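hey so i finally got around to running the thing on that chain from the lab meeting. sorry it took forever, my laptop kept dying and i had to restart like 3 times. anyway pasting the input first so we r on the same page abt which one it is
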Amino acid sequence: MDAPSFDGARRAASRTGIKHLTSRLKPIHLTLALIVVVGAFMAIGNDEFLSLYNINTILDFGAILLIAALGQMFVILIGGIDLSVGGTISLVSVVFITLVHRIGYWAYPCCLALGLALGYINGVILTRVKIPSFIATLGTGGIITSLAYLVSPRPVSAAPGDYWLLDIVNGTVFSISNVFIIGALVFCAVAVFLRFTRTGRNIYFVGSNIRMAWMSGTDIAQTRNVPFMISGVCAALVGIIISSVRFGGDPVVGTSYVLNSIAAVVVGGTALTGGAGGVLNVLFGTLFLSMLDNGMNVIGVDQYFQQAIYGAMIIFGVAVTFDRKKTPIIK
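ok and heres what got predicted. didnt touch it at all, straight out
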């Protein structure tokens, strides 16, 4: 009788030790581990994966997703979700190419203002009309996508004479692409905003405990509206970048960024319930997804099988990195 009791106690202690060890690991550490493991696997599959050209490709396209994901992060930090990101990207994509031919450089601030306005509308529907963000942005996303089709029902190309106007995005500085620089600047700006501004701190406060934030005198409506406005601006910036890189707009170009932006935020360990996470989590989540997407092409995974692997890896990544401390335990 003594031996089984001893073995049972030892197994219980072992399980407790493993649980304690995993609880000490932050989600961001697990995301880094995924990056290393997947990166090593891709490098073994093809030597070109770690070539300078391919790394630059990962960073450039990752910078675009990073901008969209940072905007999405703000909304998720308050416990919301923005499903209108894809529609905003698509609308701005065709509007930008249309405007850049007519008003030149003014197309840039006009399109950013458009994204800001669309984000403000989303925020008002949430805070004033009191409709959950999932439903609100699902509806506005459909409306915005329809507007993109009304502006241009088919892809529109930039006129060759307007190519020089797109050099703000397509150019380089000291051999570093402007796309990467823009992504880095947005990342730094977001990090400073969240860390050193009252609104940034209030976003975490509201996401963690909205009732306590209200009792402390925080302006809940304004604090919940700002993230949607920032998400709209980030989505508009992505639309501008994609149009500039492709030298043309497309009314469906933003479709994939809806779920990818959410996945990049969550894979990095930011809690969907709000109040936990940050820019580094989003950075590593974006790097993981960009590396995975690029690596499957480099090692020659069948195009029709890539989406299945991509989806499976997202599920695995979220399962490993998801912060369950923010999730209610149901027994």
